[in-house]
Input
Amino acid sequence: MEPFAALILPPAHPLNIHFRPPPLGQHCPLAEERASGSVESSCLSEMAVPSTDIFKLGFIGAGNMAESIARGVAKSGVLPPPSIRTAHRRPERRLVFESFGVRILETNSQVVDESDIIVLSVKPQAAKQVLSDLKPFLSDEKLLVSIAAGIKLRDLQDWSGQRRIIRVMPNTPSAVGQAASVFSVMCAGEMATEKDEERVASLFRAIGKVWTADEKYFDAVTGLSGSGPAYVYLAIEALADGGVAAGLPRDLALSLASQTVLGAATMVNQTGKHPGQLKDAVTSPAGTTIAGIHELEKGAYRATLMNAVVAATKRCRELSQS
Output
């Protein structure tokens, strides 16, 4: 009898990764080296390590993503908790951040004043007003990092007056240290420095893996890794429902489904093999797995997942233009 078939997602192809794109037509030599292939593209270092480079980190917005990043940074030792600060009106959110040593201030302007790096982690629809309010307190001595979905670097610059800006797209598995984060850098005038990029990479390595990419890919990044966890949750739920339909107890079916997806993803990441190779290795002639795959193919499984990514990308593009 062949082993239980793990869920295999469609093959992924690497982005055409650039290090420092010049969206405003400015000269960025390292970006040109990336684009020409003279600098090899790669995922940045996967592990955060305690740092001797101590700086002050402030969060504008104290929601779940800000909490995940702050916890990861503190837990990994990238920064000591007293070097992290935020402000929030709700006592329960203040208590959450205080519980792991973050300094709580009264206003966002105080957070900006006392921070070297400011992470904008508010809802996208609030970003313009928040940055406009903070504009008098911002300066090029500070680095602005935005994780607000769909807000482009050009808009961030216009609203804030900042020229040192890095835009990052993390995803919700940051809560368990397994985020896929992609960042892009403003390249105009007093742009973000290499040290800025190194610091931001160290922050987001504390919650997962980090890549750099040209901003033009960010809508697609949102459609794939930003929305992707929801697609996988749906697949896990469907696998578990299938197990229940086949006679398994609900708790066992859900445990098997989630562990199977985790194991399959780990196999792809650790072996370096193409998902198709791994699928073929568990697919015996006239066996159970090929029978299941046949049903998935009849239901346009691959095309449906591809269409989901494309649809989410399109919607992200629409929202960013509105």
Remarks:
- Residues 1-42 have pLDDT under 50 and may be disordered.
- The CA atoms of residues 98 and 129 lie 27 Å apart.
